[in-house]
Predict the 3D structure of the following.
Amino acid sequence: MTEPKLHQPKPTAAFPQVFCPRLEKTLPVDEHADCPFCFGKKPQIAKADHGDFCDFKPGSDPVNFGFPTDATRNRTA
């Protein structure tokens, strides 16, 4: 997935920026470190490989408390 080309500030060594798929915008690494979906350390986040630090999955309920996704609590009809 490629990042949208928005008018974003250029990252610098002091303030690197990484695209956030949840908010769909570029954020400083520090803000990713505060996100409940991001579990990596700042150096991992700065590499921008979301598989290494981000648990966000579009369209999924992030709070399932360990229930299987096909459990009756997830049925819509």
